[in-house]
Amino acid sequence: LHYIIIIVIMSLRFASNKAFSLSSRFCIRPAATARFDGLALLKKEDEQQQQSSSLSHSSLRIRHFSSIPDMDRAKAMRPTISAMENETLTIIASMGNHEAGCEVLRRHIMSVDNVDYATAYETFKHIERINQGMDFRTIPYFVGISAGMITTALSLPMVFDLTTAKWFNELYVTTDVPEAVDLETWLEVGSWTWNWMEPPLGTLSFMLLCLQFTRAQIQNLGLKPYTEMVVQKRAERLADKFPKYNREIIHMYSESEPLVKNSWLNKQNL
User: Fold this and answer.
1) Helix, strand, coil shares of the chain as percentages rounded to 5?
2) pLDDT tops 70 at residue 264
């Protein structure tokens, strides 16, 4: 029965996701239309330049979408985030790039506080430390990590180890123990313990599948699951703590940063 219900849930989830993707495909997207019009305009400009130009090929400066970059274009490239122009940097940051969001915030601090880059960087590090502070809302993630690791470590001996199986059976199951001849190998032990291990494992797997299906429907409705809510609350708290800075820039920076950074896990200095 569990397998039948699982198949039904998976089919419903696939159908709902397919319907959502089809509905999104036929929606009018102004941004995509504008981008297409921009490409068409650039191509039109290139054609006009090619028709009206009488200069030699070496002196032409025409944008070719399929050509390799020349030396002038390579030298004009900004090698780092901090060297980019404000408009380009803001576009990259709005796409969720964390390094670009950090640089936008640093430049915003320079503008608001009227300080140099080094002073703004120190202020940014203070904001970063506050944003990376531990939040009680992240406790469920650590509980889930611990529970998953413990369950993984215990699942094998609970099913295939005879000593552990007998101990667990004596305390919690109290079922009949087979003859010794039927428990000579670890596979025979597993066939015995599976009588009581299958119901909880199958039920937990079904529960996880139902939760995954529920989360997919929440996202299809445009609502925010738990993780998005935690990120949003953190950004709002950070913006409230530094009200003199632009809330949108603070939100863009905070939402792009992981809840727990590797530097914190490795106990490195920020």
Assistant:
1) 75, 0, 25
2) no
| Cα–Cα distance measured from residue 89 to residue 103, given in angstroms and rounded to the nearest whole number | 8
DSSP assigned state of 96: T
Secondary structure of residue 253 in the 3-state scheme: helix
Q: How far apart are the first and last CA of the chain?
A: 53
For residue 219, pLDDT over 60 is answered with yes
The pLDDT of residue 188: 92
Please give the share of the chain, as a percent, with pLDDT higher than 70. Answer: 69
The model carries a pTM of 0.57
Distance (Å, rounded) from C-alpha 158 to C-alpha 196? 10
Measure the CA–CA gap between 97 and 91, rounded to whole angstroms. 9
Contact between 138 and 259 under an 8 Å Cβ cutoff? The reply is yes
Q: Which helix (H) or strand (E) holds 193?
A: helix 186-220
Contacts of 167 (CB under 8 A, 6+ apart): none
Q: Are 230 and 71 in contact (CB under 8 A)?
A: no
Q: Are 164 and 157 in contact (CB under 8 A)?
A: yes
Residue with tokens 């019009």: 37
Sign of the Cα torsion 168, 170, 172, 176 reads positive
How confident is residue 46, by pLDDT bands cut at 50, 70 and 90? low
| Residue 236, amino acid | E
